[in-house]
Specification:
By secondary structure, the protein is α+β, with helices and mostly antiparallel strands. The protein has three helices and six strands. It has a six-stranded mixed β-sheet. The longest helix is centred in the first third of the chain and has 15 residues. It starts with 16 loop residues before the first helix and ends in a 29-residue tail after the last strand.
Length: 156
């Protein structure tokens, strides 16, 4: 429930195509400010995140996480695109570029799954699953030029 310190954030679920696209654009614009306190206002007080192998709980941890992130990822610029939506859920594709303090540039990309509460605040955010891969223990990506016959084709 929205309070004086936690105002509701339209658009509200259930989402339509237009309202989901608006929510994605609002998130993209907020993240591109690189202001952790501003970004955190879009999340529920008790929001839960999984970002790579890190788990974040609540706004204070969100602010701390984003502060660490943007201290390392300099000149960060992000693009988010609507991928799917239903009810109070939105899935996005994202890509962002940044450089470290040595001037080396990086591009990061992946998918995020968002769940919103009735006040339009993001309650859960899961993205960019990443873990070490050992060459002998690979399960999803074939080294062959052709896709394995056991995997269904990708739909564009």
């Amino acid at each position: 429930m929205a309070t004086a310190t936690t105002p509701a954030r339209p658009p509200f679920p259930p989402f339509t195509r237009d309202s989901a696209m608006q929510k994605v654009r609002l998130a993209e614009n907020a993240w591109n400010t690189r202001d952790p306190a501003t970004v955190a206002l879009a999340y529920a007080i008790d929001s839960r995140w999984r970002n790579r192998s890190e788990f974040v709980n609540g706004r204070n941890e969100i602010i701390a996480f984003l502060s660490r992130k943007w201290a390392k990822e300099l000149d960060y610029r992000l693009i988010k695109e609507l991928w799917a939506f239903t009810g109070n859920h939105i899935a996005v594709r994202f890509a962002y570029e940044w450089h470290d303090d040595s001037g080396h540039w990086y591009r990061s990309y992946g998918n995020e799954n968002w769940e919103f509460n009735d006040d339009g605040l993001m309650a859960t955010r899961f993205c960019l699953n990443q873990r070490p891969s050992h060459f002998g223990i690979r399960s999803q990506i074939s080294l062959a030029a052709r896709a394995p016959s056991r995997r269904p084709p990708r739909i564009e």
